[in-house]
Write a structure and sequence with these properties.
heterodimer, A: 449 residues, PmbA/TldD fold, six-stranded antiparallel sheet, five-stranded mixed beta barrel, 18 strands, globular, B: PmbA/TldD fold, 2 domains
Chain lengths: 449, 500
């Protein structure tokens, strides 16, 4: 914070400035075949500076940005002069302003666990080695564990601006993951399992192992399925990625720029009445919980869709002004080298009453999808077109049946939200911007043979 | 295990030029020959490598990088953001037996480097190796002689912004239904130095420039998007040969064409892939599966297939980092080895995999020049460069004319593969029905899904209209610039994931 405020104090008269400083340490251990394959440790730090200058004729302000992967004073000074120079070239815009304190109190979060620092490296190495060993021995059909990783990180962020923003935050993360390959005859199938927490002691190696083994072994013998329309039940992990695509269409920035299929639909029914979707970074259970957003405003609970009706979008300061509203405390930024934009941070679909098995029973016949591919190449958050590669198991008579691979499931995001027929109560807090639970969506097109 | 291709050539987190000379004209200058003192002094290198091997180990390496970048975005008719950035640091690797220790630092002083060396060396402590002193027997310096180029940092920001405005105007002029245009340009200069305890010393000075346009068109059936990009391992001279208006019009036409699009068919159909971005097929269907790290872990469907027929005899596939100017081109890879033209599949027969130093060592062979990393903060691994199918002899129009019913894919946007099973997807961003040998109605975006070896065997025609396309390849959390290419080709059947 000292560095951030020291730079901000260099602001010239009439110049707006925001300084974002981050410092972090990461460790990663990869185990393979009973030994440590690689061990990485690193410190990193950087600064991102935004400058706002008044336009020459009072027609608005201009923004410039520069960053540097170093906190050396000469490098920070060079970034500052780059940012100033960059600002001279932007189009003057009355909506370009830096965030200013808006009276919302931050919900402080306890996201820091000393365990990441105090746990000896040997113990972290042991976690990865043991996970690899246990996964290999868990089932005779597991013929390979291509990697077992332990990683952790800690990051501290300070943000200061000429508009009075002063925020600091820090968080730790710890992550265990394992990739298993199951084999039977010439057939091979893969499964990934993981466990996340704020410290190594919060991790559950069995959860990672069991998930990887179950997912790889139950796909053995998978075949293509016959094309047709069916109800698809998505695994919680897939639902988390689905929601993160929906999130990009709920960004106020996408809406004001005409890049969201939700634009102009506030107050309309956009989903099944059972759907309530909330972005709530103040919920400490969310892996991506945060007290402050990417502009230093307090994060807050925003109900985006309730009972199927679209209520609001998420905004950062600039997109909010363009939409003639206020920031919802939803600026996100990709570290010191990125500028803020409007986005969701901790989406949760309000859980239903049913367990995963209840949903399968309710659906009766359909496809259970445990993982998808091509979310980036076959899902378009502007048009809403949705087509992804899928693997999983057929659902027959309310139970999981034979495994399926090399098929796609397709619809549109608009239609999928309307066709939600079952929301699980089995909410899982996952890394990324959304939690997930079992979700059933009717009338999707399965493409196979 | 899962690797992806993304359509937009984007920068990783390394950007901008610290020193911007404001020459309004954009002068053409010759990059001064890189010297052995440019990033780290040789005496310091020897000390650092010795310290890295203080507890034993088979190999120590210093990878230093000084990277600058600049980008500008025009969105919603406004020059919205100019950004510049700089990243400088070194990664130090110590390999002891099967274990690699790695540490990185943004401090390029001898003190900073020695601290990183000590951290990387700690993994070798239990290896029982003997202490070695590295006397730098500096090998021949690999310098990059690419002649004259216009360094992006020598080009005025006004000149760059003019390109954005021209593209915006051209895209909007393409049709009244174009409702939104985003134009981005970016450039980077990445100077790297690699030295290792085997005496290797190499440097490269990589200059890349990209330009991209994304359009939204709005019609009765909702919104559609179109994207086009230009990206080369070159300086601003690319704009002397390429017209930004053409890039903009291509993006706009793509979005406009899809306004009339029907839902894509569902199920197995014959596919004709147009030259260029269709190369994503090979990147996913076999490129990743031929990377030696997957092979050595028996995590590829191509393990043990050397010398076998793995594709149609029409398939001769090459990975080639030497193609000057292509997006995946460089003078030395991120382990200091020269790139090569590596033939992976010849007339359908698997002839080689791709190798980095670590995996090549296990097999007692040389690296194929495929060791790459996103930045000094990352360990190198086996990566593709420019991966392409050699052209055939048929005529592209005739291939379409001889396809009674199917789908013509003129642009692919990205893909993803599971190397272990060989199952992969690739997504269309511009496609049409083929009816009675004619390209007819446009189709909405969809993914195609197939299994690598099966799909490669189903290629029954390859034309002579070779073209290449740039993209960003993601693997194990690292992104690197790559190229891919092919000529128009036909696959007798692939599953198309539409809704109709």
């Amino acid at each position: 914070m000292e560095l951030a405020t020291a730079v901000v104090e260099q602001a010239q008269p009439g110049e707006g400035m925001e300084v974002y400083v981050a410092r972090g340490t990461d460790n990663e251990v990869r185990a393979y075949d009973g030994a440590v394959e690689s061990l990485t440790s690193a410190d990193s730090a950087g600064v991102g500076i935004r400058i706002v200058l008044d336009g020459p004729h009072g027609e608005g302000s201009r923004l410039g940005f520069a960053w540097a992967g170093s906190l050396d004073p000469d490098v920070v000074q060079a970034a500052l002069s780059d940012a100033r120079d960059n600002a001279r070239y932007a189009t003057p815009d009355p909506d370009v302003v830096l965030a200013a304190p808006d009276g919302f109190a931050a919900v402080e979060q306890d996201l820091w666990d000393e365990g990441v620092i105090t746990t000896p490296l040997e113990d972290k190495i042991a976690l990865a080695l043991e996970l690899e060993r246990a996964t290999r021995g868990a089932d005779p059909r597991v013929r390979q564990v291509s990697s077992a990783d332990y990683s952790d990180g800690r990051v501290e962020v300070a943000l200061a601006s000429t508009t009075g923003i002063r925020s600091t935050s820090r968080r730790t993360t710890a992550f265990l993951s394992v990739d298993a390959i199951a084999g039977e005859g010439a057939d091979s199938q893969t499964g990934t399992g993981f466990s996340v927490g704020r410290s190594p002691t919060a991790l559950d190696p069995d959860e990672a192992k069991d998930d990887a083994v179950l997912r790889s072994t139950r796909l053995l013998g998978a075949q293509k399925a016959r094309s047709g329309r069916c109800t698809v039940v998505f695994d919680p992990r897939v639902v988390s990625s689905l929601l993160s695509v929906v999130a990009s269409a709920l960004s106020g920035e996408a809406v004001v720029k005409g890049r969201s299929f939700f634009a102009g639909r506030i107050g309309e029914t956009v989903a099944n009445a059972a759907v309530t979707l909330t972005d709530d970074p103040t919920d400490g259970r969310a892996f991506s919980a945060s007290a402050y957003d990417g502009e230093g405003l307090a994060c807050r609970r925003n109900v985006l869709i309730s009972d199927g009706v679209l209520r609001m979008f998420v905004y950062d300061t600039v997109s909010a002004r363009r939409a003639q509203t206020r920031s919802t405390g939803s600026a996100v930024r990709g570290g010191f080298s990125g500028t803020p934009s409007a986005g969701c941070r901790a989406l949760v679909l309000t859980p239903g009453q049913l367990g995963a098995d209840d949903i399968l029973e309710m659906v009766g016949d359909g496809l259970y999808v445990q993982s998808v591919t091509g979310m980036h190449s076959g899902v378009n958050p502007v048009s809403g077109d949705f087509s992804v590669g899928a693997e999983g198991l057929m659902i027959r008579g309310g139970s999981l049946a034979e495994p399926v691979r090399e098929v796609t499931v397709a619809s549109s995001l608009q239609r999928m939200l309307q066709s939600v027929v079952g929301i699980g109560g089995d909410l899982r807090w996952l890394p990324g911007v959304a939690a997930g639970q079992t979700l059933a969506i009717a009338d999707m097109q399965l493409s196979g043979d | 295990m899962s690797s992806t291709w993304a359509e937009r050539p984007e920068w990783g987190p390394c950007p901008a030029d610290g020193v911007l000379s404001e020459d309004e004209q954009g002068t053409t200058i010759t990059i001064p020959p890189v010297t052995d003192t440019s990033l780290i002094d040789p005496g310091v290198l020897a000390n650092v490598l010795s310290a890295a091997l203080a507890h034993g180990g088979d190999m120590a390496e210093v990878f230093a990088e000084d990277s600058t970048s600049a980008s500008a975005t025009l969105d919603d008719r406004r020059i919205e953001e100019l950004s510049s950035g700089r990243s400088r640091g070194a990664g130090i690797r110590v390999v002891a037996g099967e274990t690699t220790g790695f540490a990185h630092t943004s401090d390029l002083s001898e003190k900073g480097l020695l601290a990183a060396a000590a951290a990387a060396a700690s993994v070798a402590r239990d290896g029982g190796g003997t202490v070695r002193t590295v006397a730098m027997q500096l090998g021949p310096l690999t310098a990059h002689g690419r002649g004259d180029k216009t360094l992006p940092s020598s080009v005025s920001k006004s000149v760059k912004l003019d390109l954005l405005v021209r593209a915006d105007e051209a895209a909007r002029a393409a049709g009244g239904a174009i409702s939104q245009v985003q134009v981005g340009c970016g450039d980077s200069r990445r100077r790297i130095l690699i030295a290792n305890s085997d005496g290797l010393l190499a440097e490269d000075d990589q200059v890349r420039t990209r330009f991209s346009v994304v359009c939204v068109a709005n019609g009765d059936t909702g919104m559609q998007t179109g994207h086009e990009s230009l990206a080369r391992t070159e300086g601003y001279e690319i704009f002397q040969r390429h017209n930004v208006e053409d890039v903009a019009r291509a993006a706009a036409q793509r979005a406009l064409a899809k306004l009339a699009a029907r839902p894509a068919p569902s199920g197995e159909v014959p596919i004709v892939l147009a030259g260029g971005s269709g190369g994503i097929l090979f990147h996913e269907a076999c490129g990743h599966g031929l990377e030696a790290d997957h092979i050595l872990k028996d995590a590829s469907v191509y393990t043990g297939q050397m010398g076998q027929l793995v594709a149609s005899p029409l398939v001769t596939l090459v990975d080639d980092g030497t193609v000057l100017g292509e997006w995946g081109n460089f003078a030395v890879d991120d382990e200091g080895n020269a790139p090569a033209r590596n033939v992976l599949i010849e007339n359908g027969v698997l002839t080689d995999y791709m190798w980095d130093w670590l995996r090549a060592r296990k097999e007692g062979r040389a690296s194929s020049g495929n060791g790459r990393r996103q930045s000094y903060k990352h360990l190198p691994m086996v990566r593709m460069t420019n991966t392409y199918l050699l052209a055939g002899s048929e005529n592209a129009d005739e291939i379409v004319a001889q396809t009674p019913k199917g789908v013509y894919v003129s642009k692919l946007g990205g893909g993803q593969v599971n190397t272990t099973t060989g199952d992969f997807v690739f997504g269309t961003t511009e496609a049409y029905l083929i009816e009675d040998g004619h390209i007819t109605v446009p189709l909405r975006d969809a993914n195609l899904i197939g299994n690598g070896p099966e799909v490669l065997r189903r290629i029954d025609a390859v034309a002579d209209d070779f073209d290449m396309t740039p993209g960003t390849c993601g693997k194990d959390g690292q992104s690197v610039p790559v190229g891919c290419g092919q000529a128009t080709l036909r696959i007798t059947g692939v599953t198309l994931g539409g809704t109709a």
